[in-house]
Amino acid sequence: MKSLKRYDYLIYTFIFVVISVIWSQLSNFTWDDDAITRLMNVQDARHNSLQWLSAWNRPLFVVLFYLPIQAFGKTGAMLLMVALTAISGILLYKGLRHKGVPHASVAVVFLLFQTFLFGIARDAMTEPLASFLICLGLYCFYTEKFQWFALIGGLLPLARSEGILLMPFWLYPLLQRRLYHYIPLMAAGMLAWALGWYAYSGRPLALMQELLSSGNSKNRYAHVSLTHHSGKYVYVLGPVAFFFFLWGYLGSLRKMLSDYFVLLQFTVGFLVYVIFAVYMDLGQSGGALRNLITLSPLAAVICLYGFNYWMALWPLPAADTKTAKRKSTQPVTPVKRDELWVYVVFIILLAWISFTNELVYRQNYDPNKKDYTILWFLIVCCLLAILPVFSFARKRVYVVAGMLLVWQLTFTLWYENPQSHGNEERKGINDMTAFIHNSSLKDRKIFCGHPWYFWATGRHPNDTITTGEVSVRSKPGMQPGQLVIWEGHYTGEHYTNTPLPVFLNDTTFAPVYVSQNKDKEAVAVLFVKLYPQTQYNDRFFTNLVKEFPQNDRIPYFKGIYERDRKKAAAVSIQDFNAALALNPGGADIYLARGISYLLMKDKANGCRDLNQAALMGSQQALPLLQSYCK
């Protein structure tokens, strides 16, 4: 058992690695689309030297991940990211153990299974990379390897640009110890980056302009309230880690200045993200909680402080004389157990007041929807925390501690399950991609602006032979037979500003397929650029109907083509009949057939279909009924 306990930090790390790899194989959903774009940018770095210098890409990320991504694609990025995060936990443990902090291995759990860090640590994102650097810096700080400490501090801005604002905390230990000759090492990373920009652009201040350029555009995510980050930080950490974090932070406030590298740096770093999200447009932070992942190592240490305060409440009873002697030399715990009850009540009230609304997109509360998950997890955590009050549990306080850590793991694995980031938009693009690439359409040139399409297909947006941008600018260059995937996100006002009517109202394009969300709203619409020769278009739709005989969308859109593009309403009714045979509950099919009947002056059948569509929930049918069926 002693041998097992000695290597418990490696057991925690091994569990993290195994689960992370399994999770990566169970789903292709990334935390954010940024992970896809960054991976594609690193792939493009072999042809485009600017990708090495871009502040958005983060130069250190490109340097470290270039070879794994070039050789193994997204699998290479996943494996290296998991490895770096796992090493972060080991470094954090080694540093804390060297410092003599009790129960240092517990910090590995509080780091690796912080909910957001665990969820993002398989993607091509830079927050875990910055977290790794801080862990490495903590290790060098505690072991007094200040030459490496200075160099690592200088690399932090190359992983996350806002790391520049944390550099004073890395500079102070060097000044305090009069290690002035190491200070130039802190400037090495930024100097190399600045020289790279100068060589590329010929402008001495090109790096400064690059860092500030993200603030030139409007923050499309809007600014958030001052309490946005603090009010939702429980989701970033997970309920058990949050329980100990708050205890550790409040209990250590009096040591803020003496423990400046952890407590003060965390506080200032946290406030930096708050200020960015509330008042500024730099980085378009928009209150993105994932930015706080950068501070994960500091938060994990504070969690450990809280855990040690809790452990100090339950000195183990002496089992023999030797243990009794050891116990007699222990200092009296400075924390009264009565304070535990007060803290537990405080945490439960805080959870009830602040954490009972549903969190949407891992970011904002929906005041109209309730979600008591965090509340119940915190209540269970509180019950476990007070369990050692009873004598039978006090003798097994390490078992109770283990239960708390398992409870943290349970929440993280449930909340960050493999499908947790599969929102309707991504599922819609996946559906559209599967439709295209499981058919003869895959050989055509496809215009699409959504990163998820390229992630799912393995194509690259710079491959202009097989792909193209969806925009008003690119539209005139689209050739007959080529396909367009319109979707509301990356063709919206913040990107190419190409609304759906640009293609829907253009008679040279015809809709082919649609991916819808649960409310039957279009997530993505596939269009084909029509041929001037009608027979080619007829052959296109006829072949699709044969290729997908069980898909009601194909005859439906063939009917739309016949009615709206060929003006053959009678033929369209046959297609709508075929679609209804496959999907008798299709309100949009009844609506479409009703319009065709009205175009043929068949008011009785047209109004019957429109009425049926209205009964099935079609909002478009109501005005038509009022206009044509009175």
Description:
With 630 residues, the protein is mostly helical. It folds into two domains: 400 residues, no CATH class; 159 residues, Serine Threonine Protein Phosphatase 5, Tetratricopeptide repeat (Alpha Horseshoe), CATH 1.25.40.10. Helices cover 60% and strands 6% of the residues. It is built from 29 helices and seven strands. Strands 4-3-5-7-6 form a five-stranded mixed sheet. Strand 3, helix 22 and strand 4 form a beta-alpha-beta unit. Helix 12 packs across helix 13. The termini are far apart. Keywords: Membrane, Transmembrane, Transmembrane helix.
Termini, distance in Å? 84 Å
| Beta-strand percent range | 5-15%
- Please report the total strand number as a whole number: 7
What would the average pLDDT be, to the nearest integer?
A: 90
The total number of structural domains is 2
Jot down its keywords.
7 strands; five-stranded mixed sheet; two-stranded antiparallel sheet; 60% helix; Serine Threonine Protein Phosphatase 5, Tetratricopeptide repeat; 29 helices; globular; mainly alpha; 630 residues
